[in-house]
Amino acid sequence: MFDERWSDETREVSSALRSLLEGTCDEPAVRAAESSADGRSREVEQHLREFGLHDLPAEPELLAAVSVELGRSLAPVPWVELTAVRILLDVEDAVYALESDPPAGPGSAVVATASGIGLVANQGERERTAAGDFLVRVDRGLAEQRWGEEDAQKLRALTHMLAAARVSGAASKLVEIGVTYAKERQAFGRSIGSYQAVAHKLADAATAAEGLELIVKKTAWLAARDGANGVPQPIFGLMTWSHAVEVGRLVARNVHQCMAGFGATLESPAQLYSRRLRSWALRLGRPGDAHREIARILLTPQRRDAVEGLWHEERGVTVPRWARELDVTV
Amino acid sequence: MDFSLTDGERAYRRKVRDLVQEVSGEQMREYWAEQQAVGGDRIFPWAPSAHKLLAERGLVGIDWPAPWGRGATSSENYILSEELVGSGFPSSPVTSSHANVRAIIRNGTPEVVEEHVPKALSGDRRYADGLSEPEAGSDLFALRTTAVRDGDEYVVTGSKLWTSYAHEAEYVSALVRTDPESTRHRGLSMLLIPLDAAGVDIQPVWVIGGWRVNQCFFDAVRVPVSNRLGPENEGAAILSAGLADERSLSFGGTDSRLLLARLLHRFAGAADDLDDSDLEAIGRFATRLEVERMLNISANAKGARGAESAAAAGSMGKLYGSELAQEFAQWLNELLPESIYRTEWGVSVDDQLAADAEWFVRGTVTMTIAGGTSEIQRNTIAQRGLGLPRGA
Ligand SMILES: Cc1cc2nc3c(=O)[nH]c(=O)nc-3n(C[C@H](O)[C@H](O)[C@H](O)COP(=O)(O)OP(=O)(O)OC[C@H]3O[C@@H](n4cnc5c(N)ncnc54)[C@H](O)[C@@H]3O)c2cc1C
Questions:
Q1: B267 and A319: CB-CB below 8 Å?
Q2: Per-domain boundaries in chain B
Q3: A4 and B297 in contact by Cβ < 8 A?
């Protein structure tokens, strides 16, 4: 029997974390962090550390669910960037920075080298992003290679999943914000949520957010199966991440439209979310690159046949006998 | 969280896959010819001999309660449909008749059950869905077909439109107004009307995919009262129970995955023959088709638990899948431009995939309509899922 819900243990952690974040990482806390000198909230960081977020076991489902919660509350901490590095490379206080610059704070950054990845001091000019955090222009040339391509690929895949989970949490919360607004706001003597033009935009946003959460869950579930060692398959990392970019954009666009002028003001929580969704979307490369790589995996028989659990397949992508007999090949 | 199959489910899936493996290219063409001869549907295909084969293999009625079926779980039902549709097997009897017979078993008198179910099990009896009418589509409860009690019989007058399979089936399961004073969902009953009864006239309505649906006219058709399912005037409840069972069916996603899989095999090892925009489209469709499946699985799981969110989840899957299928179909036609020359059924064409892409682009037009339009799905998501108020 299928069950799309997080497991009981995960839900317990998630709901405890949500309570903690509601108390400590509310909207004023997020705003305070983004107007601070380095975009961080030491207080939230401290609470999360005490909660044990930096010692979580390498269980993909748990990590994904935590990331969803951090996204929901826009927690101003580089947990996503730290976690895959801690788990896969066994390095504390180093952040992921393979495609774009690392967030400020942690001591070092993992960057790409000629044929693998290495560490570099997380130092350099800092620039504030649209997400309210700061990225550091590290000197990638100073990194010495410490790990090979295979480690890089695993690191990427786990980061892809965690980053997508963070977008998923933020997107779901933004839909909730839009729905609450649409129930309260009146126009022409009725609540705007009773107009289909508004309601249907929110329905599309909700569908997109739900779909994203589900593909994150599937990716985490596959990564937890025997033999996967807790790391998503690259193709699932790419799919989940590239989909998150699209969903984040769609949700932001639709909810902004439904909230109109008030949603566009700086007082509105909507823009706190939409700015982050947009900024996060640019950090792991362009979705088109991911889509092409997904296609290349699926079009290369050896790589395709190694994919596990895509669609209804156990392995690879198969076609029925009749189609093999009738279809021409190039 | 669990997306795996139990050992039993896996064994059962194996059985379905083995059956599908038996179907050669030539056999599939025979099925198509058989369907085409009866104006059959290419998008929800229903070849009589394929139906018989399913029945022989014990794959009809798996979810019906014992002694008729074995009370298969909703996930098993999902797997059956996914395996058959996903392999192009002409399998609509399984989804369409399954639901109708389930309603018969739940609500029919013992005599009616005894009369219908064995024939349905052996693949000798099929059912069409008679819900929509010319003036009652999305607004189904505006339906006007009446059934007036006359002794042990009802006298049915009116018409049903868009009735898929009515020309192939033996019965239509029709929602009719049994209380003439009633409005909307009150006063409706579900009636099994034999399609060969006096006063039934079935006229073809040809749709864009090149197949036939029907308009069924009922001119004082006499139907035994015992053919009513459940209590009089409570047909709406039977309808909604039936719809709830069908929520996780994919509308176009499963067919799209099959077409994309075939495309991947066509270009296997030849990624460099495709340009960047084609590769991007393939990666993006592969991803969204995974999402579509997960939406349906989620609807299935919620439905099995009786979760309140199941209705909105079902609408999300239907909305997402049918719109995605249209987009995919259009792109596939663009990638295989020769498909514009392949408007035949594909029984004897030189490029089967191109031919199938062509029917898919036409067939998917109806996927955002049949089974509840996209707008109605969005209303359900907004109202039942998000708690937004109804419109004026
Ligand atoms: C190929 C095919 C097979 C079918 N098979 C069957 C079958 O076997 N049995 C059966 O009973 N029916 C069947 N149908 C009928 C199908 O369920 C109806 O076509 C569908 O419910 C829409 O009804 P309609 O066509 O009358 O359109 P209408 O309801 O008139 O809709 C026209 C437009 O108005 C929109 N609209 C209507 N109401 C609202 C609203 N409240 N809010 C927003 N927009 C709205 C619709 O979304 C649509 O865009 C089939 C249809 C097709 C095309």
A1: no
A2: 7-97, 128-234, 247-385
A3: yes
Two tokens, residue B321: 């899948």
Q: Does A188 touch chain B (CB under 8 A)?
A: no
Dist. CA B137 → ligand 1 center (Å): 4
Q: Which helix (H) or strand (E) segment is B171 a member of? A: strand B171-177
Residue with tokens 């329905």: A203
Is cis: bond before B67, omega within 30 of 0?
yes
Q: Given the structure tokens 């990845």, which residue do they identify? A: A117
Q: Which residue has the tokens 């864009």?
A: B208
User: What's the ipTM?
Assistant: 0.98
- DSSP letters for A249-318: HHHHHHHHHHHHHHHHSTTSHHHHHHHHHHHHHTTT--HHHHHHHHHHHHHSHHHHHH-BSSTT-SBS--
The answer, for A6 touching chain B at a CB cutoff of 8 Å, is yes
Answer whether A46's CB lies under 8 Å from A145's CB.
no
- Hey, what amino acid is at A91? V
The answer to whether B224 and B152 have CB atoms below 8 angstroms apart is: yes
Q: How far is the CA of B376 from the centre of ligand 1 (A)?
A: 9
Tokens at A324, concatenated: 């093999």
Residues B387, A180: contact at Cβ < 8 Å?
A: no
> What's the A200 CA to ligand 1 centre distance in angstroms?
18
CATH class held by domain B247-385: mainly alpha
| Chain B contact present for A221, CB below 8 A | yes
Classify residue B108 as left (phi > 0), alpha (psi -120 to 50) or beta. Answer: beta
- pLDDT 10s digit of each residue in chain B, 392 long? 999 999 989 988 999 999 999 999 999 999 988 888 888 777 777 788 888 899 999 888 888 988 998 888 888 889 999 999 999 998 876 666 788 999 999 999 999 999 999 999 988 899 999 999 999 999 999 999 999 999 999 999 999 999 999 998 999 999 999 999 999 999 999 999 999 999 999 999 999 877 899 999 999 999 999 999 999 999 999 998 888 777 788 999 999 999 999 999 999 999 999 999 999 999 999 999 999 999 999 999 999 999 999 999 999 999 999 999 999 999 999 999 887 777 666 666 788 999 899 889 999 999 999 999 999 999 999 999 999 999 87
Which domains, and CATH codes, for chain A? Answer: 151-324 (1.20.140.10)
CA distance A70 to A29: 13
Would the pTM of this model clear 0.90, i.e. be above it?
A: yes
Domains B128-234 and B247-385 share a fold: no
* Cβ atoms A248, A277 nearer than 8 A: yes
* Cross-chain residue pair A3–B1, CB shorter than 8 Å: yes
**How far is residue B67's CA from residue B88's CA, in Å, rounded to a whole number?**
30
Q: Are B78 and B296 in contact (CB under 8 A)?
A: yes
For residue A198, the chain B residue with the least C-alpha distance is: B382
The CA angle B38-B41-B44, to the nearest 5 degrees, is 140
Class of domain B128-234: mainly beta
A interface test, pick of B27, B255, B292, B294 with most A CB neighbours within 10 Å = B294
Q: Does B83 touch chain A (CB under 8 A)?
A: yes
